[in-house]
Amino acid sequence: MLTSRIRHVVAAALVAILVAAGSPAGAQEKSRMDIVLERGKLIVVTLTTVPPFAFNDDKGQLVGFDIDIARLVATALFKDPNKVEFVSVSAEGRWPAIESGRADMGVGGTTTYPDRAIRVGFTRPFIDSGISVLVSKKSGIKSLKDLDQDKYTIANLNNPQMADRAKRFFPRTKILTFDTPSAQFLAVRSGRANALQIDTPSAEYWAAQNKDEMEVLPGLLGASQNNGIFMKPGDFKWWQWLDTAVAEMRTGSWYPQYSEIYHKWFGKKPPPQKFYLQQ
């Protein structure tokens, strides 16, 4: 009788295992890589207010360095830079768009931070950046130290990293917080703020476009930073391909195409693809 009961227990366990294996929870989730290839186009989440990374030009077309990088990824996948659809979101909307599966990957002036990597996965950086301060020439501010006075106001983005930098570098300066870089820029241009902090390429872009009104202060706020492609975590196949693509852009076979895009938006050559190939 004991043997019969053991047989029933073993049979029940086998049935449970087979049911679990055949259920959706037990099935292996399809990689985003396969979904993208089957769909025939890439869906990318981005911002539209961060020149020269991603912004709408005078014709209303979405352009920028990050946009061209996404098109280069589409070219690698489909041999067609136009097989990409962009989903424009706010800064905070980036993460839900990836977590929900609405987009395959994200670009758009997005710095890699450890706290962000809790929510999304990042590739290695496809561009190195830093944080600079753009000031109105009317303010008379000539250095980062000059800005740390209670008579001045700095425009921040609504994120904890900028708030922390403002407290560390400008504890006496008044702060205005905005949701988009464009709103920061308008605050300085209108006189509501005397300065703003932003990624160095954006600060240099605005200064070049407004030479009579604005300039970038010498020096960076802290260490250099990395901008990476981000995606939903846990999909090794998709992450591995994207990370490999970025590696080839920065240091390998795609460097010529990457270099052309870099020069187009920043007016200079990118860092050399290998440290021993100084340009």
Provide the number of structural domains.
2
CATH architecture of the largest domain: 3-Layer(aba) Sandwich
* CATH superfamily heading of the largest domain: Periplasmic binding protein-like II
Average pLDDT: 89
Q: Which structural class do you get from the secondary structure elements?
A: alpha/beta
What order do the strands of the largest sheet run in, or round the barrel if closed? 10-9-11-8-12
Order of helices and strands: HHEEEEHEHEEEHEHEHEHEEHH
Low-confidence stretches: none
Radius of gyration: 24 Å
Describe this structure in words.
The structure is a single chain. With 279 residues, this protein is an alpha/beta fold. It folds into two domains: 32-129 and 225-266, Periplasmic binding protein-like II (D-Maltodextrin-Binding Protein, domain 2, 3-Layer(aba) Sandwich); 131-216, 3-Layer(aba) Sandwich (D-Maltodextrin-Binding Protein, domain 2). The chain has ten helices and 13 strands. It has helices at 2-22, 32-39, 65-78, 94-99, 144-147, 160-169, 181-190, 200-209, 236-251, 255-266, and strands at 42-46, 49-50, 54-56, 62-63, 84-88, 105-106, 121-129, 131-136, 153-157, 174-178, 195-199, 214-216, 225-231. The strands form four sheets. The chain has a five-stranded mixed β-sheet, with helices on both faces. A hairpin with a 5-residue loop joins strand 3 (54-56) and strand 4. Helix 3 runs antiparallel to helix 10 and helix 9 (236-251) crosses helix 10. The longest helix has 21 residues, at 2-22. The radius of gyration is 24 Å and the shape is globular. The mean pLDDT is 89.
